[in-house]
Amino acid sequence: MGAVLGDIIGVAVLGFLAFAVLSLLVMRTPVTPGFARRSPTTSSVQLRQDPNAGFIFDRGFLFRRRCWFVGTCCPPTKIDPRRQGEMHADQRARPVPLVASGGRVWWWFEGTFYWESGRYSERDVLALIRDRQRRSAQRLDRAHMLLNIDEGKAARPRGRREPIPREVRRAVFERDGGKCAQCASTFDLQYDHVIPVALGGATSAQNLQLLCADCNREKGADLLVTPASVRFGVSLTTASLSECRSSRPGSVSDSSPAAGCGLALAIPLDLSSSPPVS
Ligand SMILES: [Zn+2]
To answer: Which residues pair with 211 in a beta bridge?
Structure first.
């Protein structure tokens, strides 16, 4: 009886040993994918989505379940499988930090992985992710709008134009002495396209002038000779203007108004799109 029991125990121990040895033979660290072997190339502080990131599950000693996290520039890093389960639940509600490697920290949020190099807090990460999502939604809206315009399903928005770059604004403001080019008023100044954008006028310092709101409004439907023409060293009358227009149609170019008729045309503008001086 005792001998039989001893045999059973012996077989059990041998079986267990064989099982353990087999598990050790089979067990190995997961293969590190190419994207994880790279080292970080940028040192700028940022948050980025990591499409390569994910979990690897395998079996370890005694065939116990193991979990690894792997990401771009992040070699497989062991994570407690139970922790992984908890994090899986948590990441639906808030960003969850996963692993730190090479100065980056990986986060999991709403089923997507991100890395950041700014030692951000959970709230920082949430704010940055929401900002990314907002911008990407705006880009998509804009892309759809442009596609609709291309396909003729939507009208090109009127009264919208590229904003005047800060350096150009500054140059125009300084050149015109911070006052209306027509009446020298310093009240309610606006940037005015001498040759309107609609006629091919450029948003350049050469084609911009400061006008007060009143002078801008007064430009009206008629062609006016503005002090801009004085800037180009040309003096002309309304007669010579019309003469020039009839003899050389379409010769007014935005880049060099003096090369065409030798004058600057001030044509009605829509005030709504003239950005005020900031
Ligand atoms: Zn004025």
So the answer is: 190
Using CA atoms, how far apart are residues 227 and 264, in angstroms rounded to an integer? Answer: 9
In a domain, 45, yes or no: yes
**DSSP 3-state of 113:** strand
Distance 185 CA to ligand 1 centre (A): 5
Structure tokens, 90: 């948590």
| Within a domain: 1 | no
Structural domain harbouring 108: 15-126
Q: Provide the number of structural domains found in the chain.
A: 2
Domain membership flag for residue 239: yes
Distance 271 CA to ligand 1 centre (A): 14
Residue appearing with tokens 């389960």 = 85
Q: What pLDDT digit, counting tens, does each position of 130-172 carry? A: 989 988 888 888 888 888 888 888 776 665 567 889 999 999 9
Distance 182 CA to ligand 1 centre (A): 5
Largest CA distance in the chain: 130
Q: Would the pLDDT of 106 be above 90?
A: yes
